[in-house]
Every structure is written in structure tokens, then in C-alpha cells.
């Protein structure tokens, strides 16, 4: 039989205890309030012990009087905690449930445990049992009181923008809603305002969950209302649009527009709220101006490209303006909205009237907006956008200058933490980039990049504007790459533009433009690197962009333009005729789509003409090049004054004329080609790189057809001047070297042209100005300013300070890396912008100094006549110039008023290149890559190689040295009448000679040139002269002119050996080498310091270099041709980089003996820039350097070093004290290598052992 249940159906069993409830909680301040003397505001009551909320649940306390707080409503209880407004706990009360149930009392009053012993709080409450009902009876009055309290807190938030207000408002409003049912007459309004409050907090925090709950609540409020009020519809529409901004979900946007249409349609025309509703039909979140001022219509237009949407936005905005009374504070932003919509319409159609109307509307808005209004600067920034667009259409510089001025004001007036700050930065960056395109001012694009990095850095990851900011950053970086050639810029551009594309929805209207930008960057990198995957991807994404774009969209012009560029770049490498045909097809489409009067028509025609010319070159069709010339002439005719593309148009036209001349040989075509190259090179505007290319072509064309024309040298002068411009001080040393890789050889060609007209003096000046540019810049920054100090001390001091800052920026500025955090990239860009300002400041200071009488030539290239006045007395300086057509030696001797010109007709660049290749093969076969450890019986660190018998002919090294002797060195010595052959190895009796080779000769051992294969006929440079090398003539002249003594306190020798550096082969001979030198120095009472292995850190080495005038580094060395300043000496405890040495102020530097491998090996890509450790040590201040041209054996290195110092020590003067004088270092090295040579035979192996030792400097 079934067990009988207690009670009736629907009732709970009588033996189950009902939950206790408490009502009307009151917390009283029961201590002496005046004695306590502190303001107390309790805001929350926390109840612990709920199974559903293990961490407790919060309830809001209402402040009912100065000493009382109350909580109205029903709460099941266990334990209570009260908190003050800053979140700290104030009091705790533990409630004994069993005792309360047993007592059957209807109320409770209990003292609370407080955190402050001086404070007394008492909690009182009513107790009852919760009835078993499916839905509790709710006190309507309580709900109303809660709602009113919540709305008060919401109003307080509006007044104060205090986040705690919105939090408290939400707690109270949520409780009010909980206390009502759907049948409550005020429930829809409560739901609506709770939703509005959640929306507000979402705006504050970016919380998508708050926003989604707000939408759900407002939809429910509308569903509970028989006829939804327009206000309810408008607020739901705004919330839906806000969620669309977060997620990009198209359905939200469509529903938003639908809600706002219903709101407008349901509002009487004379309703004062109608203008706001019309604005809300389009405007984004109230008070937030986007970059474009987009409305909901505009936002959908951005996604779909449907002109009806943007037309609807303009109509709605204009109605709102028309209905706004005079003096309405909302009128300025409504006018701005009209302007923004018209602006977007112009972007879509290209109709100039729309941008004129947009500017007019925005000017009215800017004029009416009160000074200091929150929207003032957004309106100014958007006005700048429209001015920029008009500038890009008309080319009127006043528009872009005004735009930048307005947008800088807007940026500077907006706090960095403000939501609009990134938009201000982006707008300004776009205008700066636009002006850079016109003027080529590098500071504009650098400022744009720095600002855009900040904009990206402060924008949340899911912010709807982030793809735009990323894309524009990529555009700016690509622009700078096109100017500077810095591959890191275009690689980062591709990286950020990929991100922009990846986070853009497939159906977003901006996706095509972002794909186009990515394709442009990829094609530009391909143009530089030749990596075929880049150009394939570029063409692919650009085609996709065109497919996604409506056929009447104005942006198609840019898209076809970029596609044509990509096909052109591809053709340049592949020579595939289909590529150039596709390029012509795209460019013709661009010309057809571009409206008459558009400022870009000249460059578009020029591109078309250039492709036509390229195709004719491929097909040998003379009619094709004539068509190209016709198109390019039209482009030139349409180019306005100061147009940045003018040099390129002239250059392309010159190329076409030159192409037609090569077929028809008409003087008129040749003359036109020369004219247009000259016009391009000397244009006052445009890219320096484009002008340099034109100048080089101009000079070479003249040299080819008019070799003795003075105009030829003028053309080369223009080219050299532009070379110095593109490798300016605003770049890092690495960046300058990268730029110079594309200009190598221009100075050598200019010198050869001058030699061809028997002007050796002019040849020398071109070489001094156009070679070793970075070296010369560094020397200029370190030039003594004693004369200027006397004339204008303050100016000299400023120049001194700026020069130090420039040197530091050039050698140690942080290099950007794609993997860096955005904050690091911002810092790098700030450094780059500061560097640019320093370079401009330097130019201004030079102009100021040159305005002083007597200083007109301050830090200008030194003329030949001045160089001849400060030559060393001990021997000639010989510059050997080598270009594709001739080889010449220019010798300078003290006492002569003009240089000695020696034509070397039997030597050529082809022969030099062959010798270099032969020598490299021998070095490779002998594994001469690192200073080696002694092995086996040979006692040398060089692996053995086949040794020919004495007198054997035909060995490569012998042939190289013999050729250098017969074709270069001996003719020079004969011309200088140096014929006295030394009878012994006493080097001091021989004259000195300084070799200054150029081009491939820089890698060949002129100092060892000679015949070594026959005993009786053996003859070499070592028999006649003591050889040294110098990067430039100016370097030696400066040493002679500014010869200064060394502080005797610093005079001395610092030695270090590093035999077992991590990651390098052991060279234990360095220890013996250094100890032997140390012992000899001590025997001669020379001030000397020796640090071995782990005894020395990098910092200790630098300190010792400051303390001692001369250093001897017996260690491994590493050349870094790509990053010259990272070339280094490798120690046990780290590496000493050249950049670190350059930053040191080595005032007393004298000799650096680099007993390491390959310390004078340069980079063949920039052979005339002396990017090796030896040159770096000279640049750091050392007067003389001993180095090696390739790897050296451990034992030969020891022997040469000890013989070198024995020579110097044995010739010390009696009154030398403990000083060390390296004046005889060149003679000492000559003696030491002769000693080694005599101990060896004349085999290839032996020659490679002693030949690499070289002397640089004075």
C-alpha cells in the first residue's frame, strides 16, 4: 500500500522548513558621529551563504538619511557584509538561522563587527518565513521606489561620468525589474531604461555582453508595448548599430535602420525631437564622430557600396538641419554630418561638386560650434579630410596646408586617452602623406608613420576602425619605402595590411581598397627584391579587388593603376610580352575612367606611355615608341608647376626618345633625350631617387656622344649632388649604405670623364665628393671647430652638440623589426622623427655658419687646390680611378700645384674583376676564413695547399700580383720617378706612399704587387715604397692639417688576447703573441696593460681604449657587410661592435693593431664606402690601423706582431719616458712583413701568409 502523503495537492510537506526571509534592513551609525569625524557612505550589502552564489551576492543600500541606510525587498539570509563606496568592507554580521527560527521573533537588531574600533554599526531587520508559492507577491511601491532611485543614479552618471554611478544604477534598476512582472504597467519603461544603462556601460567598457543584454531588454520592452514610442525604437536602433560596430553583423545594421525609420515615421513634423531622430537614423553613437562621420546609412553604404544608402543619409541629415532652430546646440554636428555624407558621395562618384558642398557644410559647422565644445575638434579634423580630398583632386597646395593645420590643432587638443584620439592621428597622417606625395618632404611621411603607430597601438583589437588604421599605416610605410628604399618599411607594410585584410568582412565595402593597398606593397617589394611569389600574389589580390568593386566606383582608377604597375614590374623581370600587354590594358582603363581635369592624369598618361615604350623595345616596333612619345608629351603638357611626378614624366619621355634614336639615329631625338633627362634631373620637385636616375642617364648619354663637352661634367655634378641627398644624415648609417648600393660607380664615372678631358683636378674633386660618403659625413660631424669658436662661440657650441646627437642617432638608433610590440614600434618611429629633425637642424646650422664672412666653404667638399696645400712630406698620395671605360692614377705630391695624371691604358675593370675572382678562389681553396689554430708540423693556422716549385709560372696569386705590378703600380712609380730600389730590408730609408684605390681595386693588394716567381727578376712594390692605404685623400689631409699631440697621461699600449671565444675556433697563439709584446714593452719601460681571456669584458675594453692611446686586439674579428656597425671583435665575455667604438670619444687614439682576420675586407656592393673594421677604427679616431685583407695564420700573425713592436721599441727616443709613439707604424709593418717573407718561399701558400697585412692611415 502506498505511503500517504502529508498535505493537499500544490502544498509543500509540512515537515519541510520554510526558508527565512528578511525585509526592511536598516543599518544605523550608532557611535558618536561627531567624535568619529569621518564621512561614511555605505553602498552595498553583501550576503554570504547562497548555494547559487558561492562568492556571495551584492544588494544595493539606499542612503535614507545622514546616519541610516536601508535595503527594501525580500532576502533569504545567512551572513551580511556592508561596504563603503570605495569597495572596502566596513562591517560584518553573522546571523544564526537556527536560533532565529526557534525564537519565532518577528524582528532582529544586532551589533555588527566593524573594521574600525571607533565605529559602531547596528543592523536591524524584519524576519519572516518565505511562503511556498510559484511566484512571490511583489510590492509595487517598492519597485517604483527602486526604479526612481536607479534613475537618479543614472542621471548622476550623466552629470559626472563617474563609473560607480552607472554600476549602482544598474544594480538598482535590475532589482526594480526583478520586482515586477510583465503585467506591471511600468515594466516596459523599466526594461527600456535598464537596457539604456547597459548600453551606456558598454560604451564605457566595450562589453559586448552588456550590449547584447541591452538589445534583448529593449526588444522585450517594445514587445510589451501596444504601440512602441519612437524614443524606444530609436534607442533600440542605436544599440543594434553599436553591436554592428563590434561584430560587423549585417542583420544588426539592417534592423537598426528599420527601427530608426519607424521612429521617424511615427514622429509628428513639429516634434522638437524629430531633428535628433533624423540624425539618429544615420549618426553613429551619440556624440561619437568617426573618421568619416558615418551614419547608419553611410555604414551600410560602406558595406554594400549602394548609392541609395548614402543618398538616404544625406537626405536624413539635411532634413535634420532644416528642422533645427537657430541657436540649436545640435546644429553644428548635424551640419558636419551633412558634410561627411557628401564627402562619402564624392569618394564614390568623383563628382567635384559634392566635395565642394561637403567643405561648405563643414565650414559652417566649424563656425557655429562653441569654442571648447567636445565636438569642435572632430569637426575640424573632418573638415581637414574634405580639404585633403579636394587637394588630391585639384592639386591646390593651400587646401592641404590648411587641412594639416586644422588636424594638428584637433590632435593637440584631444587627450591621448580619448576615444577620438586615434581618429585624429589617422586623419592627420592621411593629410601628411598626401602632401608628401606632392612635395617629397620626408618629415611629413615620418610624422604620419609615427602618429599612425600610436593610433594602432591605442585602438582595441576588435575596434571597427582598426582595419582602417592598419591599412593606412601600411600605405604610409610603403610611401616611405618608395623614397628611402628601406626594405623593412615595405615588409612591415605588407604585414599590417595582411592583418587589415584578415579582419575585414568578405562583404565589407572597404575590402577591395585594402586588397589594393596590400597588392601595391607586394609589388613594390618585388620591384626591389625580385621575389616572384610577391608579384604573383600582388596581381592576384589586385584582380580580386577589381572584381569586388562596382563598375561605376571612383576607386577603380587607383585599382587599375596599381594593377598596371604590378604587370609592369613583372615584365621588367620576366620580359613576358603578355605582362606588358596587360599593363597597357590596365593603364588605358585608368585613362578612360579618369575625369577631365583630374590632377593625376599626367602621371597616368606617363605610365601608359612608359609601358608603350617598353613594349616597342621588346617588339622593335618604331611606331609603338612614337605612340609612347605622343602620350608622354601630353602628360607633360598637363603637368602643373611643382608637380611631384614631373621628373618621372620627363625621364620616361627621354627614355622613349633615346629608344627611337637608337633605331633612327636622328640628332633631334638624341637632343630631346638629353633635354628631358636634364629637365628631370634638375626639376625643383619630385623624388630625389627618380632625379638621380635621370641625372646618371643624362651624364652617361653626354659622355657617350659628347665626351669632351663641359656639360658632361656638369651632369655628373648634379648626379653626385643627388647621391649625397638620398644618403642624408637623417638616415642611419645602415640606411645610407643601403641607398648607396644603387648609386655605386657614379663618382668613378665622373672622374673618368674628367680625366678624359685632361682635368685630373676635377676628377679628384668628384671622387672626394662622391666616394666614402658616410665616412665623410662622420668626419664632418667630428671636424674641429676652433676657428668658428673664435668667430662665433655660441654657434660653434650648438654645432658641436647637434653633431654628437646626429652621430649617436646614425650609429645607435634602434632598428624596427616586424616582431616588435606596437609600443616599441612607436618608440622607434619617434626616434626616427627626432633624427629627421636633427638633420634639418644641422642643415640650418651649416647655412648659418656659411653666412659668416670667411666661412663660406665651411664643411663643403675641399677643392683640389686646398688638398694640395696639406699633403704629407714623406711621400705621395695616389688615387687610382677605375670605371668601365678607363683607368687613371691621380698622384698628389707635397710642393706641386697640380696633381700628376697617369693614364693606365692596360688595366681595365674586367681585368680587376678577373683578378678579384681568381684571388677569391684561391682564398676559398685555402679555407682562409678565420684565424686558425696551429696544427701539425706546419705551425700555421692555414690549411696546406699545393705549393709549386720555385720559379713555377702560371699560378693565380702570382699572376694577380704580377698584373697589378706591371699594369698599375710600376707605371705609377715610374711616373713619380720612384726608382731607388732598397738594397736591404731597412724600411726607414724608403719613401712612403698612400694608395687610395676605387671600385674592384679596393679588394686587391696593391702594396704587394710584384713579380715573385723568378729569383733573378723578382721585383715588387716593397722594394721601392712603404705602402699605406687611405679611404680618401681628405682623410690624410685632415691628419696633416689637424695634427695634435697625444696627452702623455694617455700614451701607452693596451693589449688583449682572446684565445677561446665561445663559438669560434681556438687561437692559443694570441696568448703567446700578447705576452711576448707585453714583455718587450715592459723591458722598454713603456706604459702597458694586458688583459687576457675572461679578465676582460666589453666595458673594460672600452674603458682601456679611453685610457690608452694604442691598442692591440689579438682575437677573432667578424665583418658584417649588411650591417657594418655590427662588425665586431669577439671576446670571451661578449663582442665589441664597431658601433659601440664609434660612440666612444677617443680623443687620444693613435694606433689600433687588429691582429684578427679580414679586418680590412669591404663590401663589393659598396666598394667605395670603406665598410670594414679598419676604416671604422679610423672613423672612431685612430690615426693609424694595422689590419688584414683576409684570414691570417696563427703563427704568421704572432711573428708579424712581435717584429712590428720590436721595430718601434728599438727606435724609441731617449726622452720618451713611458709613452708609446706609433708614428713609425707603417715602416714597422713593412719591416715585419719583409721579415716574414724572407722566412718563407714564394709559393702561393706563402704569399697568402704575408700579403694580407696592411697599414691604414697616417
From TrEMBL:
- Give the residues annotated as coiled coil: none
Q: Where is the CHAT domain?
A: 960-1257
Q: Which InterPro entries match?
A: CHAT_dom, TPR-like_helical_dom_sf
* Protein's UniProt name: CHAT domain-containing protein
Amino acid at each position: 500500500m502506498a505511503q500517504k502523503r502529508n498535505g493537499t495537492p500544490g502544498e509543500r510537506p509540512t515537515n519541510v522548513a520554510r526558508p527565512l526571509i528578511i525585509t526592511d534592513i536598516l543599518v544605523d551609525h550608532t557611535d558618536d558621529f561627531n567624535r568619529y569625524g569621518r564621512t561614511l557612505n555605505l553602498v552595498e550589502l553583501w550576503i554570504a551563504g547562497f548555494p547559487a552564489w558561492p562568492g556571495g551576492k551584492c544588494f544595493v543600500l539606499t542612503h535614507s538619511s545622514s546616519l541610516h541606510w536601508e535595503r527594501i525587498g525580500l532576502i533569504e539570509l545567512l551572513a551580511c557584509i556592508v561596504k563603503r563606496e570605495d569597495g572596502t568592507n566596513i562591517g560584518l554580521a553573522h546571523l544564526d538561522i537556527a536560533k532565529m527560527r526557534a525564537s519565532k521573533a518577528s524582528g532582529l537588531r544586532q551589533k555588527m563587527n566593524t573594521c574600525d574600533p571607533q565605529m559602531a554599526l547596528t543592523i536591524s531587520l524584519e524576519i519572516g518565513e518565505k511562503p511556498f508559492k510559484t511566484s512571490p507577491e511583489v510590492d509595487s511601491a517598492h519597485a517604483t521606489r527602486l526604479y526612481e532611485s536607479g534613475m537618479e543614479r543614472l542621471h548622476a552618471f550623466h552629470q559626472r561620468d563617474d563609473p560607480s554611478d552607472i554600476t549602482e544604477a544598474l544594480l538598482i534598476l535590475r532589482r526594480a525589474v526583478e520586482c515586477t512582472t510583465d503585467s506591471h504597467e511600468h515594466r516596459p519603461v523599466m526594461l527600456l531604461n535598464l537596457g539604456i544603462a547597459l548600453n551606456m556601460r558598454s560604451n564605457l567598457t566595450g562589453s559586448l555582453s552588456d550590449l547584447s543584454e541591452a538589445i534583448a531588454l529593449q526588444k522585450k520592452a517594445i514587445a510589451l508595448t501596444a504601440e512602441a514610442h519612437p524614443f524606444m525604437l530609436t534607442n533600440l536602433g542605436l544599440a543594434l548599430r553599436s553591436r554592428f560596430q563590434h561584430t560587423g553583423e549585417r542583420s544588426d545594421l539592417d534592423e537598426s535602420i528599420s527601427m530608426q525609420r519607424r521612429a521617424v515615421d511615427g514622429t509628428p513634423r513639429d516634434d522638437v525631437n524629430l531633428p535628433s531622430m533624423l540624425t539618429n537614423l544615420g549618426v553613429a553613437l551619440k556624440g561619437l564622430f568617426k573618421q568619416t562621420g558615418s551614419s547608419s546609412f553611410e555604414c551600410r553604404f560602406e558595406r554594400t557600396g549602394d548609392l541609395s544608402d548614402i543618398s538616404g543619409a544625406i537626405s536624413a541629415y539635411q532634413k535634420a538641419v532644416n528642422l533645427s532652430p537657430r541657436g540649436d546646440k545640435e546644429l553644428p554636428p548635424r551640419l558636419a554630418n551633412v558634410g561627411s555624407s557628401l564627402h562619402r558621395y564624392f569618394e564614390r562618384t568623383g563628382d567635384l561638386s559634392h566635395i565642394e558642398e561637403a567643405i561648405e557644410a563643414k565650414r559652417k559647422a566649424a563656425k557655429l560650434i562653441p569654442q571648447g565644445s567636445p565636438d569642435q575638434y572632430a569637426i575640424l579634423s573632418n573638415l581637414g579630410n574634405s580639404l585633403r580630398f579636394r587637394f588630391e583632386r585639384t592639386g591646390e597646395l593651400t587646401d592641404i596646408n590648411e587641412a594639416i593645420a586644422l588636424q594638428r590643432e584637433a590632435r593637440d587638443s584631444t587627450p591621448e586617452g580619448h576615444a577620438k584620439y586615434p581618429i585624429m592621428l589617422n586623419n592627420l597622417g592621411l593629410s601628411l602623406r598626401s602632401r608628401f606625395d606632392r612635395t617629397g618632404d620626408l618629415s611629413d611621411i615620418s610624422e604620419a608613420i609615427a602618429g599612425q603607430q600610436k593610433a594602432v597601438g591605442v585602438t582595441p583589437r576588435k575596434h571597427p576602425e582598426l582595419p582602417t588604421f592598419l591599412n593606412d599605416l601600411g600605405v604610409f610605410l610603403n610611401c616611405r619605402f618608395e623614397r628611402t628604399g628601406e626594405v623593412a618599411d615595405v615588409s612591415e607594410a605588407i604585414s599590417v595590411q595582411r592583418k587589415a585584410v584578415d579582419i575585414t568582412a568578405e562583404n565589407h565595402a572597404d575590402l577591395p581598397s585594402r586588397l589594393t593597398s596590400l597588392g601595391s606593397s607586394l609589388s613594390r617589394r618585388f620591384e626591389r627584391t625580385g621575389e616572384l611569389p610577391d608579384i604573383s600574389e600582388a596581381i592576384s589580390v589586385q584582380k580580386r579587388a577589381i572584381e569586388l568593386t562596382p563598375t561605376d566606383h571612383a576607386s577603380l582608377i587607383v585599382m587599375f593603376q596599381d594593377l598596371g604597375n604590378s604587370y609592369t614590374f613583372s615584365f621588367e623581370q620576366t620580359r613576358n610580352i603578355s605582362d606588358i600587354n596587360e599593363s597597357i590594358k590596365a593603364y588605358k582603363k585608368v585613362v578612360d575612367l579618369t575625369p577631365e581635369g583630374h590632377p593625376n592624369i599626367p602621371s597616368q598618361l606617363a605610365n601608359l606611355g612608359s609601358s608603350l615604350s617598353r613594349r616597342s623595345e621588346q617588339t622593335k616596333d618604331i611606331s609603338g615608341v612614337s605612340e609612347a612619345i605622343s602620350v608622354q608629351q601630353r602628360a607633360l603638357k598637363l603637368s602643373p608647376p611643382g608637380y611631384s611626378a614631373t621628373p618621372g614624366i620627363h625621364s620616361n619621355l627621354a627614355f622613349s626618345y633615346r629608344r627611337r634614336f637608337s633605331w633612327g639615329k636622328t640628332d633631334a631625338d638624341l637632343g630631346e633625350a638629353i633635354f628631358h633627362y636634364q629637365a628631370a634631373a634638375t626639376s625643383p620637385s619630385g623624388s630625389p631617387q627618380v632625379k638621380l636616375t635621370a641625372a646618371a642617364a643624362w651624364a652617361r648619354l653626354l659622355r657617350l656622344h659628347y665626351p669632351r663637352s663641359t656639360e658632361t661634367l656638369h651632369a655628373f655634378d648634379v648626379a653626385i649632388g643627388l647621391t649625397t641627398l638620398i644618403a642624408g644624415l637623417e638616415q642611419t648609417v645602415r640606411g645610407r649604405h643601403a641607398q648607396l648600393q644603387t648609386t655605386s660607380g657614379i663618382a668613378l664615372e665622373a672622374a673618368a670623364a674628367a680625366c678624359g678631358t685632361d682635368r685630373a683636378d676635377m676628377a679628384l674633386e668628384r671622387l672626394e665628393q662622391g666616394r666614402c660618403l658616410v665616412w665623410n659625413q662622420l668626419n664632418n660631424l667630428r671636424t674641429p671647430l676652433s676657428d668658428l669658436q673664435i668667430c662665433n662661440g655660441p654657434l660653434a657650441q650648438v654645432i658641436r652638440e647637434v653633431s654628437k646627437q646626429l652621430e649617436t642617432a646614425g650609429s645607435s638608433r634602434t632598428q624596427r623589426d616586424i616582431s616588435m610590440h606596437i609600443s616599441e614600434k612607436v618608440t622607434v618611429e619617434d626616434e626616427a622623427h627626432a633624427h629627421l629633425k636633427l638633420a634639418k637642424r644641422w642643415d640650418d646650422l651649416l647655412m648659418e655658419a656659411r653666412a659668416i664672412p670667411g666661412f663660406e666653404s665651411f664643411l663643403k667638399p675641399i677643392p683640389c687646390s686646398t688638398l694640395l696645400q696639406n699633403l704629407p712630406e714623406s711621400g705621395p698620395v695616389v688615387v687610382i680611378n677605375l670605371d668601365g671605360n678607363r683607368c687613371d692614377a691621380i698622384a698628389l705630391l707635397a710642393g706641386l700645384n697640380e696633381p700628376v695624371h697617369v693614364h693606365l691604358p692596360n688595366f681595365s675593370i674586367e681585368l680587376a674583376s678577373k683578378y678579384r675572382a681568381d684571388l677569391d678562389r684561391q682564398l676559398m681553396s685555402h679555407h682562409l676564413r678565420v684565424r686558425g689554430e696551429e696544427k701539425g708540423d706546419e705551425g700555421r693556422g692555414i690549411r696546406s695547399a699545393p705549393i709549386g716549385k720555385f720559379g713555377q709560372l702560371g699560378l693565380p696569386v702570382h699572376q694577380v700580383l704580377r698584373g697589378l705590378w706591371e699594369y698599375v703600380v710600376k707605371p705609377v712609380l715610374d711616373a713619380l720617378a720612384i726608382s731607388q730600389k732598397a738594397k736591404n730590408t731597412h724600411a726607414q730609408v724608403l719613401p712612403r706612399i698612400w694608395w687610395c684605390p676605387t671600385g674592384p681595386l679596393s679588394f686587391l693588394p696593391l702594396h704587394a704587387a710584384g713579380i715573385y716567381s723568378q729569383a733573378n727578376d723578382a721585383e715588387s712594390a716593397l722594394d721601392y715604397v712603404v705602402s699605406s692605404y687611405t679611404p680618401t685623400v681628405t682623410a690624410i689631409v685632415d691628419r696633416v692639417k689637424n695634427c695634435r699631440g697625444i696627452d702623455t697621461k694617455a700614451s701607452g699600449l693596451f693589449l688583449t688576447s682572446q684565445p677561446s671565444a665561445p663559438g669560434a675556433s681556438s687561437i692559443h697563439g694570441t696568448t703567446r703573441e700578447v705576452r711576448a709584446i707585453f714583455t718587450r714593452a715592459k723591458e722598454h719601460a713603456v706604459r702597458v696593460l694586458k688583459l687576457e681571456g675572461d679578465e676582460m669584458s666589453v666595458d673594460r675594453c672600452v674603458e682601456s681604449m679611453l685610457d690608452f692611446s694604442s691598442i692591440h686586439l689579438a682575437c677573432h674579428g667578424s665583418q658584417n657587410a649588411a650591417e657594418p656597425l655590427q662588425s665586431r671583435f669577439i671576446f670571451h665575455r661578449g663582442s665589441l661592435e664597431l658601433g659601440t667604438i664609434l660612440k666612444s670619444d677617443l680623443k687620444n687614439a693613435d694606433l689600433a693593431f687588429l691582429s684578427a682576420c679580414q679586418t680590412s675586407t669591404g663590401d663589393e656592393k659598396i666598394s667605395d664606402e670603406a665598410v670594414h673594421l679598419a676604416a671604422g677604427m679610423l672613423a672612431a679616431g685612430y690615426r693609424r690601423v694595422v689590419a688584414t685583407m683576409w684570414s691570417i695564420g696563427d703563427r704568421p700573425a704572432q711573428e708579424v706582431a712581435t717584429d712590428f713592436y720590436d721595430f718601434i721599441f728599438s727606435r724609441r727616443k731617449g726622452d720618451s719616458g713611458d709613452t708609446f709613439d706609433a708614428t713609425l707604424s707603417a715602416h714597422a709593418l713593412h719591416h715585419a712583413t719583409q721579415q716574414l717573407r724572407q722566412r718563407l718561399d714564394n709559393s702561393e701558400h706563402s704569399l697568402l701568409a704575408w700579403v694580407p697585412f696592411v697599414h691604414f692611415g697616417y
